[in-house]
Amino acid sequence: MDYKKTNAPFNTQPHDLIELSEDTGNIYETVSIIARRANQIAGEMKHDLEKKLQEFATLNDNLEEISENREQIEISRYYEKLPKPTLIATQEYSEHKLYFRNPAKEKANLD
After folding, report:
1. How far apart are CA 25 and CA 22, in angstroms?
2. Where are the domains of the chain?
3. Alpha-carbon distance 53 to 79, whole Å?
4. CB under 8 Å to 31, separation ≥6 — which residues?
5. Which of 5, 58, 75, 108 has the CA that lies 20 to 30 A from 68?
6. pTM of the prediction?
7. d(CA 84, CA 89)
8. Per-residue confidence of the chain (111 residues) as pLDDT tens digits?
9. For the range 95-100, what are the long-range contacts, defined as Cβ-Cβ under 8 Å and sequence gap of 24 or more?
């Protein structure tokens, strides 16, 4: 899912954890799934931001030569205004857009 085109809220909203954990039957497992996805999204966002800011990097970094670049500031502000990774992950989970599995449960079912 493209985190730039998500319909996730920009502010934290309360969620019914019992309702969210209906798929797994375990609140802690649900929170773990959402947290892992949030870490993946945060990594993607960081990688994209670093890639875009790398274009503006200069080879000569002296304290005296550091100047603010307008485009660099605009890109940073854009990424700051995006919804937080936890909100995006929670939205994906509640819309059933995440695939997850628990190998321990699968092994128990096989036995």
Report:
1. 5
2. 16-110
3. 11
4. 17
5. 5
6. 0.76
7. 9
8. 566 667 777 777 778 888 888 888 889 999 999 999 999 999 999 999 888 888 776 655 555 445 567 788 888 888 888 888 999 999 899 888 888 887 777 777 776
9. 96/23, 97/1, 98/33, 98/37, 100/24, 100/33
